[in-house]
Amino acid sequence: MNTKVNLAGVTLKNPVMTASGTFGSGQEYGEFVDLNKLGAVVTKGVANVPWEGNATPRIAETYGGMLNAVGLQNPGIDLFVQRDIPFLTQYDTRIIVNVCGRTTEDYCQVVERLSDQPVDMLEINISCPNVKEGGIAFGQDPKAVEAITREVKKYAKQPIIMKLSPNVTDIVTMAKAAEAGGADVLSLINTITGMKIDVHRRTFALANKTGGLSGPAIHPVAVRMVYQVAQAVSLPIIGMGGIATAEDAIEMILAGATAVSVGTANFANPMATVEIVDGIRRYMEAYEIDDIGELIGAVR
Question: What distance in Å separates the CA atoms of residue 24 and residue 182, rounded to the nearest whole number?
Answer without folding.
Answer: 28
